[in-house]
## 1
Amino acid sequence: MVGARRRLASWVRLAPSGLITLFVASPVLVIAASLGADTGGLWAHLASTVLPEYLRNTALLATGVAVTTVIIGVGTAWLVTLCRFPGRSLLRWALLLPLAIPTYLNAYAYTDLLQFSGPVQTWLRTTFDWSRGDYWFPQIHSVSGAILVLALGLYPYVYLAARTAFLEQSVCALEVGRTLGLGPWHNFFRVALPLARPSIIAGLTLVLMETLAEFGAVQYFGVNTFATGIYRIHNQPFPHALTAAAQLAACLLVLVALLIGIESLARRSARFHNTSTRYRDLPSWQLRGPRATLATALCALPVIWGFGIPVLLFMTRNLQRGDTLARAKFLEFGRNSLVLAAVASVLAVVLAILLAISERLHSTPLHRFLTRLSGIGYAIPGSVIAIGILVPLYWADHRLSAMIERLFGFSPGLLLGGSLLAIIYGYQTRFLAVSLNFVQAGLTRIKPSLDGAARTLGATPVRMIRSVHLPMLRGSLTAAGLLVFVDVIKELPATLILCPPNFQTLAMRVYNLAKDERLAEASTGALAIIVIGLLPVLLLSRMLDHSRPGAEGSRPAGAAERKQAPTHESRLRPDRRRCVARL
Amino acid sequence: MRQNPKVSTLLSLLCLSLLIGCGAPSENAASSDPSAANGQGDASSDGSPVVNVYSSRHYDVDDEVYESFTRETGIKVNLIESDSAALLERIKREGDQSPADVFVTVDAGRLYQAQQEGIFDPVTSEILTERIPANLRHPEGLWFGLTKRARVIMIAKDRVESGAITRYEDLANPKWQGKVLIRSSSNIYNQSLMGSIIAAAEEKGAEAWCRGLVANMARPPQGGDRDQIRAVAAGEGDIAVANTYYLAAMMVGSPEDQAAAAKVQPIFPNQDNRGAHVNISGAGVVKGAPNRANAIRFLEHLTSEQAQEKFAGANKEYPVVAGVALAPELEGFGEFREDDLNASVFGASNQQALMLMDRCGWR
C-alpha cells in the first residue's frame, strides 16, 4: 500500500516534465520514428553519392562557427567587461546588435556585395582594368564564407553568455589570481575563463544547434550540409522523399544528442557556485595608446560586419527600389509577427520554468533526460520539424473533431490546424531550448543552500519557487523571453507551413520576394524585421548592463560605472534578506 | 527586485493583454476559417461564398487576380501560401476534413506528385478544355496549366557568336569548358529539364550529357537564375541556363540589372528538332473540396483573357491561352518552337533525374 502510494507520488512528480516534453517533443519523436521505414533504395543512393559531402561540410561548418564565435564572443565580452577603452560603453551593448539580423539576410547582403558581379568586384575590375582570372578574390559562396556569415550572426549568444558569467564572477577570485602574480592574460586564461566555462558552453551549444539547423544562408551559398540535403530531398516530388528526409534529420538528431551529452558532462564536471558573496566593482584595466585603439577596433569589427554593413546595404537597396506593397499591409505583417513573437516567448518562458524547476526539485536522471529532450527541436531544420508538427497536431485535431461530433451531433471541422495555436505550438518545439538554456543557467547560479534555508523555514516548494527562485531569476527569465522573441520574428519554415489563411508575417513577405530573387524589393521587409528585432535586443543589452550583482537597475548607465564600491554589500544584503523574510 | 510586486503585476497584465490581443485575430481567423464552412453549401458559416486556395505561387500580381475574381463573382478567396511539399502534406494530414478547394503550384513535377498522391478530383469544364491546349492539362482534368515558362540558354552577346550554340546537347560540348553557368541540381526547374533530356536521350545518353555539363561549369552551382545571368554579364562565364521570365524581369529591374540584361541574349534551343523545354504552373481542384463549384469558377476565371494577361504578363510568363497578349519583353524574344512533351512525363521521371544528377556530381 505504502509502496503503491510512493510509486503514484513519483509519477505525479514526473507529470509536469513528462507532459510538457510529450507536448513539445512529439514532432521530434515522429521524425526519429522514421528511422526504420523503407525508402525504396533512396537511402542507399544518398549514402553512396551525397552523404559524405554533407558530413564533411557539416563538420567543417560546425567547427569553424564554434571556434569563430568563441573567439569573437568571449574575446569581446572580456574586453568590454574588464578593460577600459574609448567607445566601450557604446560597444558593450552594440555587440548584441547582430542578433537582430536573420542569418539568411546576412547571406543575401554579403552575396550581393561580394560576388563576382557585385559592386566590390566590379569596382576592382573597372578600376584596375582586370577581367576574370586576373586577380584573386575570396569566394563568398564557400564553406568559409558560410562560416563567416553564420559566426557574425551567432556570436552574440556566446558574447551574452560569457559577459553574464564574467559580470557574475566574484572579484575575489580575480584578486587572488592577481595576488598570486598572474598578469591580465594569465588571470583570464587560468581564473576567469575556467569559471565562465559552463556558461560559455551553454551559449556555444545554442550556436551549434542553430548552425546544424541553418538552412537559408547555407543553401544560398551553395554549401551542401545535412540541413540543405534534408531540405533538398524533402522537397522532391516523389514517393519516399519525405521519409528519406526524416531519416536524414534523424541522423542529425543523433549528432545533436551527442552534443547535448557532451554539454551536460561539461556542466556536471563544473558544478560550482560563487562561494564569495563579496561583490565589488570588477577591476578594470585602463588601456592606453595603441592597445586602446586595438581594443576598440576588435570590438567594433563584429558590429560593423555583423550589423552595420548589412543594414547599410538594405537601406541603399530600399532607397533604390523598395517593396511596392502598401504601408498598411506592412503594418499588418508587422503586427502579426509581433503578436506571435510575444505570445510564443511568454509561453516558452513559462514552460521552461516548469521544466527547469521540476528538474531542480526532483533531480532524477529521468527528469534530466526529459528536460534535455524537450529542447532538441532547436537543432532540426525548421522545414522538417514543421512536417513533424503536422502529424501530432492533425491527429489531435481529428480526435477532437470526432469527439465533439459524438457528444453534440455536429462536426466542427478542424479547430487546431490552421489556427494561431498551431503556430505557437510549433514555436515551442523549435525554440524551447533557448528559454530552457537561460532559465537553467540562471537556476544553477542560485546556491542550493538557499533552497535548504527556505525549506527549513517551512516554505512549501511552490512558495519557495515563488518567493525565492522567481525573483532571483528575473534577469534570466527576461533574457530567455527576449531571445525567443527575436528568434520567432526571424523564424520562417514553421510559420509558413502552419499559418492560417490570409495571414502573413514579415519573414514570410521577405521570403516570398527573395524566393523570386527580388532582393531589392525584399530589403524593405528585411529592414522591418531588423527594426522589430532591435527592440528586444536593446532591452536585453540594457538589462545586462545593470545586471552586475548589486548594481541598481534604475541607475543610468553612466552612473553605474562610477565609484560605487562601498555600497555594494549593503545593497545586496537587504535583497537577500528580503527573499528570506518573505517566507 | 525592489519594486518586485509592481513589476510582476505589470508583467502579468502585459502577458494577459497580449494573450487577449492574440485571441482576437485568432478568432477572426477562425470565423473566416474555411474549416467552419459546412459541407456542400459552398459558403462559409456566415453565408458568404468562399474558395480556399492553397498556393505555392507567390507573386504580388496573383493577389490582384484573386481580387478581380472576388469583385466579379462575390466569392471571397482565402489564401494559404507555402512551399509545395508542405502544402501537399498539410492537405493530406487534414484528410477528409480539409478545407482546401484549389491547390496551385509551380512546375509540372509537383502537379504530377499531387496527382500521384491522389489529392486532385477530376473536373470537366468546357471552358477549361477549350481554352487550355491538351498538352498543358491532365487528360482527365485532374490539373490545368495556367502559365508557361521556357528554360533556355542565354549567351554573352559580345563573346559568343549567335549560332555557336543551338541545342541543350551543346552545353556538354568540351568546347565550352569553364564557360557554363547553371544553378544547383536541387532546383526543380533543372530537375525537369533533366527529365526532358532523359525523355530525349534515354538514361545513358542523359548521364553522358550531365557529366559533360558538370565538366563545363564555370563555378560550382550557386545562387538563383538571375545570379547566373548576372554572372554571364559580368564575365564569369559565357553561357547561362535560366528561365525566360528572369531575364525579362531584369530588363525592367534595377539599373544594374538592366545593364546586365542588355549584355545577354536568349537562345531558344533545339528549334530544328523537339523545341525548347517548357514548364508550367498550374492548379487542380482538391478531392472533397467543400466549395467545389466555386473552385471550378476560380480556375475558369484564371484562364479568362484579362486574368491571363495579368497572371502571366506581370510575371513575364507565357500565357497558356492562345491569343492573349504577351509582355513586351517576351514579344522581343520572338516566337519559338516548344517541346510539347507532356508535363506528366518529366514529372514522372523526377526521381530518376535527381539520382542521375547526384551520380554525376552536379551539386
## 2
Amino acid sequence: MKLHLVAWLLSGHLLAAMAQADTELLSYDFDQDDLASGPDTFHIFQHARGRVQLTRELVYSGERALRVTDVAGDEDFPELQGYFPQQSTGLLLLHFAMMTPTPAEPFNIALAGPAHFTMRQDGISFWLRNDNGLLRHTSDAIPKRLLRLEAYRWYIFEAVLDLDRGVYDLTIDDENGDRLLALTNQANATASSQSAVNMLSLIGDLADVGNGDVFFDDISIAASDARPPGPMVAPGRRQLFVDQWNAYRQDLIGKLQCLPPHDYLDFALEHAGAVLVEDFLSHSLAVIKGHLTEISPALAQQRYLQALLKWRIGCDALRAGDAAVANSAFDVAARALPDAPQVLMTQALARAAQDDYAGAVALLENGRGYGGEYLQWDAAEAMVAFHFEDDPTAEQASAAAAAVYAAGKRELRDLLEASRRADAMSQLAGASLWTEPLAAALLPEQYFFAQLWQENYTAAAEFAEGLVDLIRHHEGNPGAWLERQADARLFAGRTELAQGLYQQARNYAHGSSRIVSKLSDVAFLLGDPVAERKYREQVYGYLRELGR
Amino acid sequence: MIKLVGCWYLLMLGSLAMGADLSAEDAKVLDLINDNEYQEMVAMAPGIVDSLIRIYDVSDDPKQKAKVARAFYQLGVVSEQAERLLMENLDTTDVSLRLQSQWALGRVSRSPEVPSRLLDIMRNDPSPLFRDKAACALAYDQIHASPVDKLLIYQGLVEGLTDEKPDVRQISLLALKIHTGQTKGYDYNADPAQRDQAIARWREWLREYERNL
C-alpha cells in the first residue's frame, strides 16, 4: 500500500485530511528481505505453541503475508508488536489488510502507547477484536459491532486517528474495493484526547481459548505531524544498545539534572491504588512531561498529583542551578511518593548539588532497591561521582571493596557483586545503621562510573578487572563486574575483548536480555551478521517463512 | 530471630498435622502452596484444582485456607466447587481469608452471583477495607465475565456513584475508570447536583453499552 493512494481511497473529513500525511512511521508488506526484529521495528512473541510466520499461502498483495496462528490452552498468545516513534498530536493513519479462514476464533488488533495495552490515557487508543465472527471496535470503552467476518475474504482497514481530539474515522473495504463500512468521528477506546501511541499489536486470543489463524498484509502507519524517523544504525535499531549509555552521557555531561522518566513505574504510581481517579493518570503524565504546570481546582486536593508537580518544579530548579529550591521540592514530593525510584534519584542529585555527598550516596543506596530503569541509576551515580571530582579515588574504591569481604555480611557482598542487587537493597532499605558499610559497598561502582563518565575507559576497565579478580578470590559472582569491564573495553574500542567478557558475564546471568543485546551489538561491530541476528532474535524474536 | 524460628516451627507443625490426611500427590501440592510456587502450580492446571479443593476441605486453619484461595487466584481456572468454597468465606471473620476469597472468586467463577455479592459488599459491608477490596476485585478480577455479565457490573458500579458514603462513590468511580479509562466528569466530592449530571452521562453510556450487546 503506497501512501499516495490513500487520498483516493478515503472519504470523510479526517480521511480526506490524511492525504496530507506524508511521514511514514512503519510499513510492512512482508515481501521485504530485511525484516529484522528490534526495539525500533517489531518484537515477535511465540513462546508456546502459537506461531507468527511469513506465508505465501494466502496473500493480499505481493508474494508474502503474515500469519498469526493461535493454539488454545498453551498459556500464551502469539503476537507481533510493531514499534514506531511516539505520537500524541496530529493525525495518524493505520492501514492494513486482514483475512481469516477461521472467523469463529478470537483475535485482537490494537494501537497503544507507553501505558501499554491498558484502558487508560496513553494506553489503548484503537482496538478491534473478533468475537465469534463478529468484528467489534472498542469506542468510548464499549465494544461496538462493525461487521460479521466471512472466511477467506480479505478486508482492508483504514483508520485515521485525530490524536488531539481522541476520535477516529474508520473504513473497511473488501478485496474488490467495495466499501463495507464507513464510520466517522468515533471516540477512541478510552475517549481520551492526546493519548499517545507508539505500538501496534496483532495478537491471538487473550483468553487462551482460540485456535484461530489470521493473515495480515500491507501494514502501514503514517503521521501528519511526525518528523521522519532517523536511520537504522544496525538491524532493528536506530541506536546501538551500548550507546544508550552514551546518549545519557552526551545529554548530561557535567550537569546535575533529572533524567527522562521511563514510565509510570518510575513514580511507583501503581501503589497509589485508590487515588487512580479523576483523570489522575492523564494529568500525572502531563505533569511528568512538563506539559502541565498548574492543577485544576477539581484536582487540587490530589496529593499524588501535587507531588508530581513538585517533582517537576524540583527538576526545573535543579536545571537552573537552584539547589535549595530543588531539594525542598523533591523532599515534598518524596513525602507523598516515598517508594518512587525517580523521586529518590532526583533527591540524590539535588543533595549532590548542595555538596551533600553523604546524603546523595545514602539516597542512591536506598533508591536502587525500589527498582526503576537500570541505565538511569548508572547515569545518576555517575553524575554524583563526577560532581565530587576527587571522590572516590581508585585506592579508596579498591579498599572499600576489600572491606566488604572483611565485614563478612552476605547482603553487602550481594550489593558489591550486584548479583542480587534489588533483593539485597530491599532487605537493607531503612537499615540506617548500615549506612556506612552500604556506602563502602557502592563506592567501587561509583568510582567505575565516574571513570566512564570522564571517558577514562582504560582506567575503568582495569578497575573492573581488579574487582573481578577480588570477587573470584572470594568465590563470589563476578558477572556484573565482567559486564562493566566489557562496557569499558567496548567504549575504548577493544571490541573483541569486550565480546569475550560479555560472553563470560552471560554465564553468570542466564536470561539477561541486556547482555544478549550487547552481544548483538558487538557482533554487528565485528561484522558478524549471523551472530548479530542470533543474539538480537533471542531478545526480540524472529519472523521466518512458513515451511522454510 | 527467636520469633522467626517460632513461626517456622508452628508452620511446620501445622503442615505436618494436615499432611497426615493428604495423599502423597496432595502433600506435594501443599508444599507448592506453602512455598508460593505458583508458576509450577499453573503448569499443573487444571488437574491441580482437585488437589487444592481437597487441601482446602481438610484444613481448619484460616491461614492455610487463605493460601489455597491465593492459589485459586493465581490459577484462574473456572471451578464451581472452588466457587462454592470461596463464597462460604465471604462472611468469615478472618481478614486474610476473606480478602483472598473476595479476590479469587472472580477468577474461578463465571456465575453472575459473584459480582452481585461483591457489589453488595462494596456498597453495604460495615468495613471500609472490605468495601474497598471488593471494588478492587470488581475492577481487576472478573476475568471470565461475558459482555452481559460486565453490563451487570457496570450497572452496579454506576449505582455505587449514587451512594451516600463518599468512599463507596470513590471506589465505584475507581473501578469504572479501570474498566473504561474515563470518569465522565464525575467527582465523588462534588455537590449532589453536579454528581447527578455526571451520573446521567454514565447512565447514557450504560444504555449505549447495552445497545451494543
